[in-house]
Structure formats: structure tokens, C-alpha cells
Amino acid sequence: MKPVDKNHKELEKELKQRDLVHQVTAPVVFEEMVSGSMSAYVGFDPTADSLHVGHLLPILTMRRLQRYGVRPIVVAGGGTGMVGDPSGRSTERNLLSPDELAYNSSAIESQLVKMLDFDGVDEKRSAIMLDNSTWLSKVSLLQFLRDVGKHFSISQMVAKDSVRTRLEQREEGISFTEFSYMLLQAYDYLWLYDNYSCKLQIGASDQWGNITMGIELIRKLRSQECWGLTIPLLTQTDGSKFGKTKDGALWLDRSKTSPFQLFQYFYNCDDSQVGKLLRYFSFRSTDELEDLIANVEVAPEKRVAQQALAYEIVELVHGSTEAQLAKRISELLFSPDISTLSESELLDAFGYAPSTTMAREALVGGRINVLELFAKSTLEHSISASRRTINQGGAYINNTKRTNPDEVISPKELLCDRYLLLRKGKKTLNLITFE
After folding, report:
1. What is the chain's alpha carbon radius of gyration, rounded to the nearest angstrom?
2. Are 327 and 259 in contact (CB under 8 A)?
3. What is the rounded CA–CA span in Å between residue 10 and residue 173?
4. C-alpha neighbours within 13 Å on the C-beta side of residue 40
5. pLDDT in tens, 206-215
6. Mean pLDDT of the chain
7. Strands, E assignment, 212-318
8. DSSP states of 6-73
9. Model pTM score
């Protein structure tokens, strides 16, 4: 990771130009970041064995800070994950076992090493990952109540957005378990201050209340000033959580979400959002970003900005080889050259699409035509609906338009000797597998 000039004005300018500063406890924090001795932490409760796209913004913000000399500390919530953060939740989380949390933490660490520098020449700048169960599990209940709980009033805790919102939901409410979460997170900050001289916590905007609790605890117990910085909470154009699709979360684990699917998610982002996402996620210069964003106005149909965003995200998460492959598949998505894809590439690209299995014998002796094929797929439910799609010019097989309903399907058309890709209109797909 290439370091940059340690100038706090440049750091502050970069973060603000990219709209990465939602709230900050004190402006002096930007000077402290480039002092050469700053450690900053961000936490994730390992509720799954992979991070998802929604986690990218805090991770890549930490990557930016590391370039300016800040040491990133990533805290996996093996302890707090057993309690569950109520922030941004309308219901209580399912509680995981210690073994499940430990396994998830290990899987997450393998993803983080691709985006943060854990093996830098300068040890003081190298990222580290810690599990808060290692210190939270050693604190007795009585000690915790005496040393931490007595410094915060119930009225102060109830005033926090994450708690107040849940209390207003009379049926669900909030359990004492989740109510105590903010105290555990405050203790995390205190422990990191004592053991790693950590003086900055970073999180999404919905973490502001939890962050300020930790700052207050350090001030009361150590008489020291620490800071907090929040970044915007990402949402999609419809207000839903960023990184969510109709099929669930968009994961950073390639076995859950392929590099191609990740590429397509960002490639298909709305013109109104691509400028914001480029500023958040891209490490290109400001001038390069402005050129890409201007292209959205001049030639939106070319999707140059979206392609640049998608490529950079996949490269950060999976590496340049996967990014190049995802770009190639994307370029072939609506091209007859789809036949050049290998079976693994084809399944990477279209394995998520609805599928239909048919007997290979159906292709022998001209026994199935375009009309029947569409009728038997998930795209249509009747002969009449299939005929209408074909007559309206919306029927494609292997990205070639089919206008003759009686055209016979030949075995020679099979992709990788076993697949046909059917498409209705621009985006509705069905992958036919012949066995």
C-alpha cells in the first residue's frame, strides 16, 4: 500500500471531498491522524462467516487513513456478538455460540488482509485484528457494573437513538441484553486505549451514540481526550440497506457472491448514485473522478463510470485477475460471443439465474423449437405467452434474437455442450441445462 504525504490538511480535504465525514467529535483529530502515533479502530460483530458490501465503506476508509500513517485496529466482536447491537434493528438478533463467532471471525480476517496492510515494513502502521471476547470474557459482572455501569445514567442510555427507537415499538421493545451493548462497546474503547493507545473510533452514522459513550468513559476514568468519526450510513435509492438484493446480502466471500455478481451490482447502479459511490469507494484522484462523473451526463448509455467503479471494487476485494475476468464476462453478457466462455465462467455469470433442466433427448431429431423451449422455461407459462414474446422481438437464445417460433433448436447451439441461455427482453434470464 503506497503511503501519501502526511499532511493533515490534505487528509481532511480528501475525506471531506469524498463526503466521508458525517460527524466528528473535534476537528483536531485530523492533525492527530498524521502524527505518526495514531491508532484507530472499527468493529464488526461476526454474525456471518463473511463481510458484505455494506461493510466496505468503513474498511476502505480505514485503508485511506492507513496511507496517512494511522494504524488500523479491526475488532471482531466475539464478545459483543454474543449480545447483539440494537442499532439499526427493529428486532433482536439471533444469538450465536462462541464457536460460531470464532469461526466467523477467522473467515472475516482472511477477507480483511486483502484490503488492509497487515504486514507493513513499519510495524507501528501495520493493521491488526483483535477479538473482544479475549478481554470481555475476563470481566466479572460485578466488576463491570462497578467500573463501567456506574458512570452512565439510565436516562442517558435511553436517549440514544438505537434504544429510543426500539422502546417506541411497544410489542418488540428491547431486552436488557441488547440494552447493555453500548456499555460493552464503551469498555472496548477503554481497553484499546489502555493496551494500544487507541484514540479514534470510526463507524457508520448509526454508531454515534455508542462511540461517544466510549469517549466519555475514557475521559471519566483516564482524564484523556479521545475522538470519534462517523461516516455516512449507506442506503440505496429506495431507502433500503446498501448491498442488499432481492436474494439477500451481497457478500465479499466469492462462494456466496461471485466476483461477476459483485461487478454487476455496481455496474448496474443508478446514474444518480454512481458519483457518490465513486467518491466513497474509489482511490482514483479527484480529477479522474470528476471526469468519470461528467461522463454520466454526456454519455450515460456507455456506463463508463459504473464500469470503473465495478472494476475497482472487484479488484480491491478479489484481485486484478478476477476483476479483469468479471469485466470480460460483462462485456460478453449481451453478445453472441458468449459461446467463448468456459463452463466455470458461464456459471459464474449466470449461475444465479433461474434454471430449468431438460432431457438431452429433446434436442435429437428436431423435436423442440423456439416456441416450445420458451414455454417450458421459467420465462413463460404457456404457448400463447411464448408466442407473444417472440412476435414482439423479445426472445433471445444465447444472446441471438429469435423471431421464428418454429425454428428448430440444434444440439450444436449448446454452450459447453450442455447449456442454453434464454433471455426475455433485456434482463430476464433462464439457464437451461440439458442432461
Report:
1. 26
2. no
3. 45
4. 30
5. 899 889 999 9
6. 89
7. 227-231, 244-245, 248-249
8. --HHHHHHHHHHTT--SEES-TTHHHHHTSS--EEEEEE---SSS-BGGGHHHHHHHHHHHHTTPEEE
9. 0.83
